[in-house]
Every structure is written in C-alpha cells, then in structure tokens.
Prior knowledge:
Helices cover about 45% and strands about 15% of the residues. It has about 675 residues and is of the alpha+beta class.
Amino acid sequence: xxxxxxxxxxxxxxxxxxxxxxxxxxxxxxxxxxxxxxxxxxxxxxxxxxxxxxxxxxxxxxxxxxxxxxxxxxxxxxxxxxxxxxxxxxxxxxxxxxxxxxxxxxxxxxxxxxxxxxxxxxxxxxxxxxxxxxxxxxxxxxxxxxxxxxxxxxxxxxxxxxxxxxxxxxxxxxxxxxxxxxxxxxxxxxxxxxxxxxxxxxxxxxxxxxxxxxxxxxxxxxxxxxxxxxxxxxxxxxxxxxxxxxxxxxxxxxxxxxxxxxxxxxxxxxxxxxxxxxxxxxxxxxxxxxxxxxxxxxxxxxxxxxxxxxxxxxxxxxxxxxxxxxxxxxxxxxxxxxxxxxxxxxxxxxxxxxxxxxxxxxxxxxxxxxxxxxxxxxxxxxxxxxxxxxxxxxxxxxxxxxxxxxxxxxxxxxxxxxxxxxxxxxxxxxxxxxxxxxxxxxxxxxxxxxxxxxxxxxxxxxxxxxxxxxxxxxxxxxxxxxxxxxxxxxxxxxxxxxxxxxxxxxxxxxxxxxxxxxxxxxxxxxxxxxxxxxxxxxxxxxxxxxxxxxxxxxxxxxxxxxxxxxxxxxxxxxxxxxxxxxxxxxxxxxxxxxxxxxxxxxxxxxxxxxxxxxxxxxxxxxxxxxxxxxxxxxxxxxxxxxxxxxxxxxxxxxxxxxxxxxxxxxxxxxxxxx
Length: 674
C-alpha cells in the first residue's frame, strides 16, 4: 500500500531532474500513505516524472522499492495496492514466457509490484489486470511508445486523481498531491459542490475542484505525449464492467432447486476462504477490524479457522449505548479465541480529532463515521500493519435496510395518492427523532420484532424524506440524500450526472427492475461503496500507515454473490425479513447466533449531541452567515434554518449540517478561496 504521484509534461521543456523533483514533492505530501520509503524517477528523455511513497507489506527489502523499471527496461511503474494472487500470476508469467521462447526472468525479489509490472510488460495493462485479484491504482509508463496509462481496481478500493492543465497531466493518490504541484489552479466546481451536499461525498469522476477528475473504478486512461501536445485528453475507458458482472449474474443465477442451497453456500464459503487466505499473506503483522456484526465476524471467523490462536482483532466502543457495539465484538472475539484489543473512545479524544478530519480526507467528505474509523485504525496500527475488514458485505449481499424493506414499501406507495403520502411524511416529522426513540422504547414489549431498530427516529425521518417520491429513482434519492434539493444552497449550480441519473449504466430493467432490491444493491455498489465506504476506509487507514483489505471485494466473491437468487439474499426470519442470509447462515457455523444477531446499525458517533454541546462553538463559527457569504459558495439562509432546528432539539439535522461543516473546514485547511 502506498501513495503515488506524477507529472506528464508534453511541452518537453522540463528537464528530467525537475520532473523527478515535482513528482517527489507531490508524493511527499502523501507521506502518511507510505512512511517506509520514498522514490522519485524521471524518464531520461523527458516528459514524465513519477513519485512514490512506500508502505512495505511484501518484500520489505529494497528490491520492492518504487518507481520500478521492468527487466526489459521499457516500462516504469508506480503502484498503490496489493495483488493477492501474485504467486499464481508469477507462475503464469514464467509459463507464458517459456511457452513463447522468451528468456526466463531473473526475479529480483518477491514483491507483487515486480510481478504485476512484468505481467503488464507481457500482456499489456488490461491483460495483466484481468488476471489480477486485488486492489490497486497504478501509473505505467511505456518509454518506447511515450504513453502513460493510469488504471484503477474493479470496485474502487484505491483512489486516483488526475488533472489535465494545459499541456501537462498531473495525477496522485490523494487530492493534496495535486495541490502540491507548481502553478496548480484550485477553483471550486459549483456543480460538484451541489452533488456533494446531496450525497455527503463525491462519486467518480467528479471532484470538488474544477478540472480535476477521479478515475472511475474499473477504468483506465491512456495518454500519449503526442496527444497531450495537441491538447487532447482522452476519456477513461472501462477495462472491467460492474454492469456486466451484475447482468451476467442475474441472467445465470445459481440453481438452488432440489435442496442444493447447501452446495451453493459451500461454494460461497470456498471463495471466501480463498479470499481471506490470500489477503492474510504479508511480510508484516496482520489483524482484523471486528465490530461484532455479521460481516466482520465472518471474516474474523475464517481468519481464526486458517490461523487458530494467531488472529488479532480490534474494535472501538462508546459510552453512549445507542452507538456502542464493543460488548458484542468482545463476545465474538472470545468465542473465536482471537487476541482482542478494545478501545472505549473518550469524548475528548474524538472531539480533538474533528477539526483534523478535512486534512485526513483531503477533500470534502461528510460521512461522520470517518471519525471512529480513524480512531480504530490508529488503535490497530499500534500492533499490526495490515487489517482485514467486512467492507462490501452489505452491498453484495443486500445488507442495508433499503435492500430489505425498500422494494416492498415502494410497491405499496405507488398506489397511494401523493397527497396522502405528503401528509404521512408530515406526521412522521411532527415528532423529533428522540421522541420517536422514546416512544418505540416504551412500546417495545408490544411492537413486532421488525420494529426493534436502533435509532428508529432517525430512520423514520429519513423515510419521510422519501415518501413524496413519484418514481423509484426519486424514492431511492430520498433515502440517500442529505440535502434533498441542493439547488437551494448552491444557486445556479447544475448537479453533474451520477449513477442514479444514468439509467443507461444500469442492468437491463427486465433483469433488474427499478425499485427492486437488486437495483438498489447495484446503485449502492456503483457509487456509495467506492465514493463513501471505501474512501472512508482508505483515508482513515492510510492516514496512520495501515493497510486495510476487504475480502468480500475479491471479484471472484463479487461475481458469485451476484449469481445468488434474490431469495437467498433477503429471506424471512423470526424477526421479519433480513438481508445477507448467506453470510448469516455461514457465520452460524462458527459463532452462536445469539452473539451477533441484532438490529442493523451503522458505524456512527453521537454527532447530534456533540453539535449541540462540545462542538457547538466550532460549528457555529463555520456556519456563521457572514462567513458563508464571504466564501460565496453556500447560501446562508437554508443553513441557518437547519442549524436553528437542530439546536432546538426537535430535529436531528446533523446529516445536513455535517457536509456544510466539512466543506468549510476543507476550505480553511487547504486555503482555498472563492
């Protein structure tokens, strides 16, 4: 795991030493991603400089240092990530070279970097990546063809930003890497700001700065010096397709007739074991993040099965019961026999970290769970350098509440007049979230099992936002939007296209009807997983030099998951319909159900209370109408109304206020002005 950066200067005016210096300085801004080593390289013929910061995981010797030249000398690689099947890939490279009569490679070491580089030299970038199982973002320079290729992994675990400014191309793992380039122009993109205020994050290819793009997951960008000299920057092209994977799985679902469900589950378990085993390979200590929920508990169970008594697990807890999962995690750890470390977060430690979140994220990012993720990453890094997580389980196996009850609710809402739905929405918001929580607690003994939810008031207010929708995409937007109408805040801005507004990118409607659970899963995997979940995990872990790995996101597991019939993803249970039935069933083979079966909850923080209490002065300064008018991006009136509503205690407006606060904090942290 590392940080990469580089500059492609088509003018030819910059000397190699200058190009290497620029690339090195861009990489140094990302030193937290790679504290173990630094490398900078420039082509002797000019045009390109590569920078690299190394977090040594495989082959800790200098033989794994980057940027790295291929054995033939034609290719140079700067690479961030891990290829988990690198040993298999190495055997394939050796066999292919022997078959074609080429000289055998005298391998310098055993790093996956060297193996991936030689695979690219042999089969080209797309041919190499199609054979690789892993997470990565890379820059490959072809010295003979004067061509630079940028590429990103299938599901978007590793980030890559790029910007064409004039006749030069800049790229980096994080946005501050671009800001470190000389003469870089940083202007806020108002359309991107509007989309960010809706989603609390920015899906690729959009970025908060004009002229900057995020390379989409599963895409590559190939740039020739001759094209850059003419002022042309081609569009990225997919080398792998999420849509095709989902569509293939829906067209050819696994056969579960005749009592073969057990065989299907065994097939999933084999793939998960293969993924976990491959991701446990490292030349440094490895652990696991354990929340005590289904996804992380199953990963920890498989690790304990593979390496009994040697697994280290980590969790974080809070004094606030509604947000604390540490007791469940500790119980699972005891049952599995892991070496468990637990941190109960002190409010003062969490609050001290809040003003630093903008610097950690590097861009406006408003998922407040970045805070506990960063805290548990720091706890974990004190003992290990690599950790496995349960990320991706919800998206691939229908784990979110909207996957479970959303389709049924939408099918019923379609027949209810819009006026009645608006009345219902008003009734739901007539009580504050806390009042709803107290009511649910009082009525607990007589409520059905399905109604036993954590923070039910927040969920009902979120539902109220979606009730007036006329079509399924609007219903989904209501469920995922922080600000339902960002145009009220960013006047005159037009939101750029994203997954929900690109129906041509969805699987065929006959296979994946709008409003269905599979459709919502697809959308969540297309934008929410890479833009929110994986961004959060990457920034939180890499800010402390910790590599996070996600076994569920092995593409072989993902492909199998999409072949599961819907009835195996969402299934009725004693407490109502539940998602992730395959994972629940497999986990039951390792851990008693009583230790992990509880209502779905997020990895949250008591932010609503903090904004009314210890964070109030900090927030008030960033939300001050005079300040907002001076910055000139966000209209003060809607923000002032949301702030007043939140302070009153009747509403929980943290989801609207936090994006505004993180944007303001980002402007302040990086000195970006209007």
